[in-house]
Structures are given as structure tokens and as C-alpha cells.
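Morning - LLP inputs below, output right after.
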Amino acid sequence: MEAVERRPFYLYSKPQITRNVEAYKEALEGLNSIIGYAIKANNNFLILQHLKNLGCGAVLVSGNELRLAIRAGFDPTRCIFNGNGKLLDDLVLAAQEGVFVNIDSEFDLDNIVSAARIAGKKVNVLLRINPDVDPQVHPYVATGNKNSKFGIRNEKLQWFLDAVKSYPDELKLVGAHCHLGSTITKVDIFRDAASIMVKFIDEIRAQGFDINYLNIGGGLGIDYYHTGTVLPTPRDLIDTVRELVLSRNLNLIIEPGRSLIANTCCLVNRVTGVKTNGTKNFIVIDGSMAELIRPSLYDSYQHIELVSPPSPDSAVSTFDVVGPVCESADFLGKDRDLPSPASGSGLVVHDAGAYCMSMASTYNLKMRPPEYWVDEDGSVAKIRHGETFEDHMRYFEGL
Ligand code: LLP
């Protein structure tokens, strides 16, 4: 397949996706729960169908993600619609389909009420609360602190409870939600947040609300560095909140994205050439920030390897691995110790399953790459066509 693709492509392991889901399912044994896969992490349609078949629900942040989830066959009553700027039309669809909706603000509550009226359906809502626990992650992926753009102002909790009470035909409060951030590597952070959340739930129940869902969001990190550091597993995460959930007889909703899909994939690239400028050595590849933007956007590390390791005696140098896009932000890795690769050889960027293809762009008219997966028996299948120049020109047809 590498021989036939003359462009970068994503390559997934289907069995690894299955194993990641199984790890969560085993961790959740003994609890009533929903694993809501965060579609934003990766929206490949075949991957979604696979996750649905494994029993996942879905976490959505737009009307189109909701449409996709429905087409992929997800049970809408195991789906959660999140977001600080949900649009009325999308909320109407959510209300019609019967998905859980998180209340994020005063205006969001108004829109959910309007959507319920338009759809003629009562909406099951959760209140998105900010536990204000520091997730200790890059500021761009921290969300659960009190200055974040997400969630309600906790001091106004009573206002929200009164508002919900005043719309008994439109809203049914069923739970509380929080999402602290992404790439979290310490489970204490989840436990601290869950303790705060159950106190809120106690307070809400004390007012006569029959709420039964605690949604602790997503956020578990993965071992991007490949240094052998032992990171918390789904079991560690669930075990740290298990007693709290059981003590209040709650259903637990979790919203993992990265920890289900990131480590199942790599971006396969081809080396165009090697060059040196000033004190810097560069490996120039055909992949770029257009296919995979995380290093450029968050300065994040994703492990890089050559596909065919050269002979053991080849000299290793320190390289920046860069793409052909016309700006210096276009790098996949900095200061990587690698043998000097021959032009045309393969180079992979690991852990590219989450927030890579779903954040790909067509910058510099590098069209979005194809995707493949490998199955248990070693067979490889294409699971998404690569975008073409003709696809691009179609946007202008008939104008
Ligand atoms: N639930 C909510 C409300 C979220 O905002 C997110 C992710 C998730 C669940 C899933 O979180 P996960 O388990 O994947 O950490 N583009 C960034 C990550 C942005 C995450 C946004 N929210 C990256 O490439 O690292």
C-alpha cells in the first residue's frame, strides 16, 4: 500500500481500537455507564461504525457530528451534545433525536428551551459545571477552570436550577457534567473533580431534582513520548471515581476521545530530501502541518521513526522533521535524533489517531490524505479516499 500511495496517508490498527474500548469496558464493570466517544477526535465513518458496534455512545459538538453519529447508527439516547455555542438548528435536531444536551450558559438554556418547543420534545439536560481543578495541561486544552469559556458560573447554580424548574414541559434535568481538559496524566485530578461534582449533585438533589447522571468528561492522556513512563490506564481512572459514583447511586458518563483512538494510528510519510542550513539539519517529508497540525499548534511531541531502520552503524544526527508548507511553523518534530534517511524512504509520525486527521486542512492545497486500517489477519483496507484536486474544483462548479 505504501508502494501505491504517492502521498502521505493515515494507517490505523482496527484491533488496537477494539482493545482500547475493551479496556474501558472492563474498567467500568459493576457500574451503570455510557462510554461516549468524542467524535471530534476522529470522525472517520468506518471507525465510528466500529466504535458503535463495540457499544460506544457518542459525544458531539456540532449538528454535523450529530448527523454523522446518527448515520453511523449510534443510539441517540447514548449521545451527548456539548458546546458553549450550540446553534438553535442543531439543538432542534438534538431535541428531535432525544440526545442528552449539556446546558452551558444562560443563553444556551434559552436556546435549548426554544429547541424543545420547536421539536415538541422534552430535552434531557445536564448542567455543565466548572469544578475549577487545574488539569495541568497546555492552556489550549484546559477547560474546567473558572475562567474558561465553557460551562456555567457556579455561583449562579441556583439561577439555573430555578430556570430549569420554570420549564417543566421543555427541560428535564438528569445530571451534571464537567470536562477538565485534555492530555491529563494524573488520575487524582479526576478524583478531585468528581468529589466536587458529587457535592453539587447532592445540592441539586436536595432541591427535589431526580438527577442520576454524573458525566466526568474525557481527557485521559496517552504516552506520546514512548519513553516507557507508566501512565494511568482507563482502570486507574475509573477506580479513582468508582466509590463516589456508587455512593450516590449514579450512572457514570465518560467522554474519551484521545485515549480511545490516538495510539491506534500513524501518519506515513515519504522523505523528499535532507538538507542543512546554518546549524540545523532538516528532514523534509511530504506530510506537513496540513495533514497533522498538533506539533505546530500546541508544540506537542509525537514520536517519529523511519520505516526501514538503516544499518546499525549509520551515523545519527539531530534533525527537525519538516513539511513542504510555506511557513516555519510547519514541523512534525524538532531536534529528533535519527539516521540520515535516503530520499523516498518512509517516515512515520506515531499516535496520530486523535486530533490529527480531524484537524487536517487543505492549506497550500495539500489535499486531505487517505486512510487505511489493518485488521487482525494483517489485511489492509482503505477506509477513506484521499481528497483530490478535482474534489476541490467541485466547490466552484456552476458558479
Ligand atoms: N468532552 C469534551 C467536552 C471535550 O471538550 C473533549 C475534548 C472531550 C470530551 C474529549 O477529550 P479527550 O478524551 O480526547 O482528551 N485538539 C487538541 C485536543 C482538544 C480537546 C478538546 N476537547 C489536541 O490535539 O490535543
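Note: The pocket of LLP is lined by residues 38, 41, 59, 82, 141, 143, 179, 182, 217-220, 255-259, 294, 298, 354-355 (CB under 6 Å).

O.
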